[in-house]
């Protein structure tokens, strides 16, 4: 029988063979990867296969952004002793967004030092999917990338996306650059992802940050 990991999204395994992953031996690695890069379906699969024993220890060892970890344990993991048993359904969370080609090309061409030249292979960089956010955050990204470039630290951005309604930028870089990135992720909570006007994080329909005009509808 195939392990449950064979049902996870294949792009989570860009650098290893999916069939060779032993979930029992690699649970921490697997959990980190699913929480940071996984889709909603991956989170549900993970939830169903978390070990009962040693879970608290596993949770304490995870190297993932606190927002991802908290959201998982509170809303998905099914641990009411931690959360107060809130439930969120899939529809309120998943909505794809993409940036126009014009803006995408502008960012890649203006800040070449932040991205690998060859972005064709998802095993090397998830920037092969472009900027997975709406055009309303274009100016925000432009300003963030300008500051990262000016800082001059080695920095490779590996993924830009929207998660739970706010901006996420994954990068291999210095602490100083991380601080800049966090600042812009926070600022995205106040800017409409569609149009760039002042916005609010909305959690009653989709999780999205929008202005009044772009309130998401189901
Ligand atoms: Zn708007």
Reconstruct the topology from this structure:
Layout (H helix, E strand, L loop, with lengths): L26 H11 L2 H10 L5 H7 L4 H11 L3 H4 L17 H10 L27 H14 L3 E9 L2 E8 L1 H13 L12 E3 L5 E3 L8
Antiparallel strand pairs: 1-2, 3-4
Helix pairs in contact: 7-8
Bound molecules: zinc ion.
The site of zinc ion has 8 residues, from loops.
Describe what this molecule looks like in 3D.
The protein has 218 residues and is of the alpha+beta class. It has eight helices and four strands, in the order αααααααββαββ. The chain folds into two domains: 4-88, no CATH class; 101-214, no CATH class. It has helices at residues 27-37, 40-49, 55-61, 66-76, 80-83, 101-110, 138-151, 175-187, and strands at residues 155-163, 166-173, 200-202, 208-210. The strands form two sheets. It has a two-stranded antiparallel ribbon. A two-stranded antiparallel sheet has the order 3-4. Strand 1 and strand 2 (166-173) form a beta hairpin. Helix 7 runs antiparallel to helix 8. The longest helix is centred in the middle third of the chain and has 14 residues, at 138-151. It is globular. Bound molecules: zinc ion (ZN). Zinc ion binds next to loops.
